[in-house]
Amino acid sequence: MIELYHFWSSVCSVKVRMCLEEKGVEWTSRYVDLFQFDQMKPAYLALNPDGVVPSLVHNGAPIRESSIINEYIEDAFEGPRLAPVDPLARARMREFVRLCDDGLPAIALPTMVKYLVPKLRKRWSDDELRKRAEERPTEFYRRIHRRGLEGDISQEELQQCFERLDRILDRMETMLTENGDWIIGELSLADIAVAPYLFRLSALGEARFWSATKRPRVAQWYARMLERDAFRVAVSWPDETGGGYEEVGLKASLPTDKAAAAS
Question: What is the DSSP letter of 34?
């Protein structure tokens, strides 16, 4: 039995849902509502002590951290290959995944300012949110949530986050120029590692990072990604308690058909 503990908009949850869909693995949804702080309940902390999603459970054994989960899915299940057999190509894939894991969490600050705090405030008082922030198991999330609530994330810090994203996307543009349609030549875990972050940037109104004139290879890559059924399924999981991005004035939508995605 394969169970995925996940949340609708979590970029890391999207990564794993996409991997499962690309591999054709059937799985059971265990929804963890981050806006109700389900991730901090004792039962979930027993499964994932860091109180983050996603977590995969396969025959009762938990696997944590989205990039590790995706490698596990690749190795444990049949289906289309998402990692090359060639050792050098696999190393290049892992290098890019590591680059994403190290740098893309910078998106947490603009996400906190534009999305998470406004949405949480529709459900909880600031006093309750401060209390919940201090209960988080990891210092990173305690600090980010505390600062988001207090409104002390500066424009300079946000710009620094975007500069980190710029460097990753510059590297991606170079690899696509060298390798063709996909980051290492064939669709792989490297593409899955970055795709949900571009969708989140689009929702935050930051699609300026790629266009026909700025990083055209990334723009073409994203158009191809929007055509993939696995990606569309992964990003379209509903906000199970309602509201979606639109609740706080954001918009994250897919083209209504694949032809529109490619245009």
Answer: G
Q: Is 0.90 topped by the overall pTM?
A: yes
Residue closest to 206 by CA, chosen among 85, 92, 110: 110
What was the pLDDT predicted at 152? 86
Please list the rounded mean pLDDT of every run of 10 residues in the chain (263 residues). Answer: 97 98 98 96 97 97 98 98 97 97 91 95 95 93 92 91 94 98 98 97 93 94 97 96 92 69 48
According to the model, what pLDDT value does residue 258 have?
56
Which backbone phi and psi does 34 adopt, to 5 degrees? -65, -25
Distance CA 222, CA 217 (A): 9
Q: Which run of H or E residues covers position 258?
A: helix 258-262
Q: What are phi and psi of 153, to 5 degrees?
A: -90, 115
Q: What is the pLDDT of residue 119?
A: 95
Angstrom distance (rounded) from CA 30 to CA 196: 20
pLDDT at 263: 47
Residue 135's Cβ-count burial label (10 Å; 0-12, 13-18, 19+) is exposed
Q: C-alpha dihedral over 112, 114, 115, 120, to 10 degrees?
A: 70
**112 secondary structure, DSSP code:** I
Q: At what angle do helices 87-103 and 189-203 cross, to 10 degrees?
A: 30
Helices and strands in the chain, H and E counts: 13, 4
Report whether 15 contacts 66 (CB < 8 A): yes
* Residue 63: alpha-carbon gap to chain centroid: 17
Omega of the bond prior to 54 within 30 degrees of 0, cis?
A: yes
| CA atoms 177, 181, 187, 190: torsion sign | positive
